[in-house]
Amino acid sequence: MPQSSLDATDRRILAVLQRRGDISHASLAAEVGSSPASCWRRIRALEEAGILGPAVRLLDPASIGRGLDVVCHVRLNSQQPDARASLEAFILGRAEVMECYSMTGEWDYMLRIVVGDVRDFEAFLMQDLLRHPAVASSNSHFALKRVKYTTALPV
């Protein structure tokens, strides 16, 4: 289902599900002006098309001892495909790395890392990331506070 085939009801469904993933089909149908059966069919079609992924519950990082957000830029020592693949495989295996983007510009990657405190980040940085053979250098920025955080995409 290409984006162009999403109608107004599909978009309303997506908007609601991004805010309240645990809403019942009956409540969702009432909110978007559709029948529960139609809503259910649309949700299944959106899942099959890969537009809707799995339902999850978001945690408060501070309440589970992960209150420090760090944005870390990484520069590789080589642009060879095997160096990139090696670093990306390493990143995929690290639970504290919440997001990783391959970037244009001065830095090759940007990571968002969530840890308990500065010592936890220092251990990750010094013992793991900077010891990776593909990594030449990094630059880190500590978040003072979260001003905005959303997982909802505009539909």
Structure description:
The protein is an alpha+beta fold. It has two domains: 3-48, Winged helix-like DNA-binding domain superfamily/Winged helix DNA-binding domain (Arc Repressor Mutant, subunit A, Orthogonal Bundle), CATH 1.10.10.10; 61-142, Lrp/AsnC effector binding domain/regulation of amino acid metabolism (RAM) domain (Alpha-Beta Plaits, 2-Layer Sandwich). The protein contains five helices and four strands. The protein has helices at 8-19, 25-32, 36-48, 81-92, 118-129; strands at residues 68-76, 97-102, 109-115, 135-142. It has a four-stranded antiparallel beta sheet. Strand 2 (97-102) and strand 3 form a beta hairpin. The longest helix has 13 residues, at 36-48. The protein is elongated, with a radius of gyration of 20 Å. It starts with 7 loop residues before the first helix and ends in a 13-residue tail after the last strand. The mean pLDDT is 95.
List keywords for this structure.
elongated, 2 domains, 4-stranded antiparallel β-sheet, 155 residues, Alpha-Beta Plaits, 19% strand, Arc Repressor Mutant, subunit A, 5 helices, alpha+beta, single chain, 37% helix
Largest sheet: 4 strands, antiparallel
The spatial strand order of the largest sheet comes to 2-3-1-4
- The helix tally amounts to 5
User: If you compute it from the alpha carbons, what radius of gyration comes out, rounded to the nearest whole angstrom?
Assistant: 20 Å
Principal-axes shape call = elongated
